[in-house]
Every structure is written in structure tokens, then in C-alpha cells.
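Example for tutorial group B:
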């Protein structure tokens, strides 16, 4: 299982909503309660080291380093923010979503496929913070209470759901 978090590098972007993928990878690597029942499964986590719109090139580089071919893409999980989903919710989908996300578009273009998993972390909380266009909103920092929702609720639920994928996979 390969999990790659999307975001923007650098201290300036560290707490941005667009960095929910990076935040999840940090959280996952810091906890010890991820339990995979498949002993043959190796969990590999990465954060892209590029700006969101260039994610495809970085994902391709990571996959080449791991010698991953197209038939193994069913074990690839891309973690990213999603404005189509409210804060506090998430979805794990194969080959679909969100309506507009330049990082995902870049990956699909470079890999020439949509056939990979997406861990879509909801970040939309504009009904409480006031309407802001999407491009501006994703580059704003999470409010402390929003970050707490992610870390104490959403990330734990994602981990529990990922544990079920460990049982099903044949890596």
C-alpha cells in the first residue's frame, strides 16, 4: 500500500487547507496504532515535494523509485483536500472525484489514468468562516478548531477505514 499526501512545500504553506494530505501523512507516521492484518503488506508513505499543480511529476517519480507499474496502481492512495466535502467528512474513492483539483488533474495526466484511490479530506467550512473563492480558501490556514477536527476525528476514521483495505489487498 502506497499512500502519497499532496500539498505545497515550505513553512509558508504548512497549515494551509491545501496541505490536508501532508498533514494526514504526518499524523499517520507519528501514530503507532495503524494495524494491518495482512503481514505481507508493506505500508509506504510519502509527501510530494512540489507545488500542488505539479503533483503528477512527483507521484510519477515516487512510483518509478518503487518500481510500481500500472497494474499495481490499485494499491496507490493519493491523499488530498477536497472542497466538495464539508470539514469533518472524508471519502475514499477509486477513480473518481473531486470536480476540480489541479493536483489530481496533474496526476491523472502524467499517469494517463484515473485508476487509483483517492482519500478525499473535506475542508469546506465556508458557511462558518464566510464565503471565499476556492483558490483563495485552500491557501488559507486552518483555524485551530478546524485542525482539531481533522486530527481528533477525521484522521482516525480514515485510518480505521484504511485498515479494512489491508485485509482485502493481495500485495
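The residue assignment follows.
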Amino acid at each position: 500500500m502506497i499512500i502519497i499526501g499532496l500539498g505545497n512545500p515550505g513553512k509558508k504553506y504548512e497549515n494551509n487547507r491545501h496541505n490536508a494530505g501532508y498533514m494526514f501523512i504526518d499524523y499517520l507516521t507519528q501514530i503507532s496504532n495503524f494495524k494491518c492484518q495482512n503481514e505481507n503488506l508493506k505500508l509506504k508513505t510519502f509527501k510530494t515535494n512540489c507545488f500542488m499543480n505539479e503533483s503528477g511529476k512527483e507521484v510519477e517519480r515516487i512510483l518509478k523509485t518503487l518500481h510500481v507499474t500500472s497494474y499495481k496502481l490499485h494499491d496507490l492512495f493519493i491523499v488530498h483536500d477536497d472542497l466538495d466535502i464539508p470539514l469533518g467528512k472524508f471519502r475514499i474513492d477509486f477513480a473518481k472525484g473531486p470536480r476540480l483539483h489541479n493536483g489530481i488533474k496533474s496526476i491523472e495526466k502524467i499517469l494517463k489514468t484515473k485508476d487509483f484511490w483517492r482519500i478525499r479530506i473535506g475542508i469546506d467550512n465556508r458557511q462558518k468562516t464566510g464565503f471565499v473563492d476556492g483558490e483563495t480558501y485552500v491557501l488559507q490556514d486552518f483555524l485551530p478548531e478546524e485542525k482539531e477536527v481533522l486530527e481528533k476525528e477525521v484522521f482516525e476514521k480514515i485510518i480505521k477505514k484504511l485498515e479494512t483495505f489491508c485485509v482485502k489487498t493481495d500485495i
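The domain at 2-168 is CATH 3.40.50.1470 (Rossmann fold). Compare this with the pattern of hydrophobic and polar residues in the output above.
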